[in-house]
Amino acid sequence: MLSTKAPILRTEHSRHAHLKPVGVCEVKLTGGLLTERYLTNATAGLTAGWQQLWESHTVPNFYVVSGKRPGAVEGPRYIDSDGYKWLEGACWAWAHSQDSTLRAWIDEFVDVIAAAQDEDGYVNTHFMGERKSLRFTDLHHGHEIYCFGHLTQAAIAHHRVTGEEKLLRVACRFADLLYHLFGPEGRWGACGHPEAEMALVELYRETGEQRYLELASRMLDARGRKPSVLDGSTYLLDHLPFREQREAVGHAVRALYLYAGAADLYMETGEHALWETLEEIWQDVFLRKVYITGGLGARYEGEAFGLPYELPNLRAYAETCAAIAGFMWNWRMLQIDTQARYTDWMETALYNGILSGVSLDGTRYFYMNPLESRGGYERSPWFGCACCPPNIHRTLASLPGYLYSLSEETVYVHLYASSELRTHLPNGQQVHLRVTTDYPWSEEVEIIPSAGRYGIALRIPSWAAQADLQVNGKRMEAPPGSYVTIEAEWRGDEVVHLRLPMPVELVRAHPRVEEDRWSAAIRRGPIVYCVEQADAPNVNLLDLYLSGEVGRLSPQWEPSLLGGVVTVRGTALVDTVDRVEQPLYLSQSQYTSPQWREVEVCWIPYYAWANRGAGAMKVWLPLAER
Hey, which residues does 55 pair with through a beta bridge? Predict the structure, then answer.
């Protein structure tokens, strides 16, 4: 069942998926911001990650339980998943780099995982040896099935890029054990941390074994049952049967992984009730509970979604894993229902809430991604709960596989980056697309298609009013927030030119978002901007206001700043009235109106903040004129 294309999702036989993702190996990134982030991750990021997996005892644990080294298992019960996510990313990266050192690490890790597996198929270093009797006694918090999910995703990536079955056999044996325990002849069970649902559906796609699809469905059906499997916990998404859920609640990452798994199930079954639930929850999340950066999960308490419009800035949790999970869910929704709104939110998360999670050198990470800082918050090389760093590794390593999808006769271009696509459409048509652009800094995208009869569907982002689309100089309609399909018998000498105007914009939040009422944020194209203390050294950011006149702001390419970025430069306002000694509260009659002074300010892309020290930062600034 080897696929030399190595797609992230293998949906060519999924009857209810409209699109089929191209393979990671079919796309080559050739320049621009995404290429830079991809290459940094593939070298510095994965190298530092491998070292951290040793220092945190993730890899040594497998040596201990396999009997290859003496010692004790250390770390939290979910620690195996950190290694599996890194391994998945390493496989996707190796598919392009063919780096011998990276391959040696992959082989070493695969070998020791296989050596650690018990005869019955079980493998989880925390519950082996003296803890063996505790297996599956705590579905709420044990994370055993969660770790299995990440093992399986790593095994599928490994199989698709190497053709080897060693790790895939490990995953299948563990899946067979779970089917025996929690399948139709076993007890009802689901993991407190969803993840396995996605993995099981993809394992079914990889192997053709129907029981893996049945087990994924049964785990989804286990939620909200009476008697409850997970104590009816809202935090664990057990409060209602899945098909009766209509709003996003509980732990954000867990919820988003569950929604992604349900979308995978829908692609195989076409069950209307699943789609109805997914669509209503999507509306709840992306109309009422998402940050302008694509961040998700507002509350520190329970790493949870809050109420509608509850989106604090200073205390935003916005876990990096949640932005990635939202990206994964929207990717699956897009394969089902080809609407640009899903891709728009993927893009927003990628350029803002995901890239912010890793430093420019690729070796330090954010767990939370607040939209305001009073100073002192900075990235770390690893965490005691290290879910985010290897999630970054696998997401950036698989980026080539997210740029395009295929229908029977059309290539869909989702994310714009300089790249080359070499593939075959399902109808057999060979396609070679060359995309040249400096997006997201540049407005210009040029596409040169190879000869043949096929369509090219281009996403026009919702922010791209006045987009200009031309084929050999002939203009086409390009409404924002849509895919525009160009159907042609290509000769091989045509040029498709797309211009996506990127004026600097002031963005206002919905008036029910109390923290951002009477405030504005700056955005240019898909990039959200912030002001950082390093660029306003003589001003307390709490005293900074926007005039509301966008004409005072202009973009500027600065190649020597933060790896090369387009900044926004212009003026902001500072109240010169000395309020430091004022009482905390004043009557209206005692209040002194502001006296404004203009100051020069530079706004930088939000993803690049905290790379010059742990200074203050703000995305939203109050408006001086309301």
Answer: none
